[in-house]
User: What shape does this take?
Amino acid sequence: MLTIEEAIDEIKALRDVGNGNILILVPRLVEQMTEPDHVKVLEWHVQEGDIVQSNMPMLTVEFLQDDWYLPIPPIEGLLRVVRIVAPIGGILHLNDPLIVLASCERQKSEFLDMLH
Assistant: This one.
């Protein structure tokens, strides 16, 4: 269970960018993390076009001289990886963009609406 502060940080790491797309940002990995701190993208565990869900492995970053495994954030339903924004080897900071996801349910609904 997330504390209130962790839940707020999790919400801050998500941005609605329109058309049902959600931009995932570098989250606050430790309470003391600030924007000058950096993470290095070591490995993506997803590819563009993949269908994913909450808590699946998303990527591995280096932070504080250790490897950190970041899962897909707690978003309901199945999601499609639209675009990976942060390249492997990229140096990122708090709230920098990582990846764009889209709800599969919304896409399914839009497709069914087009058929009617």
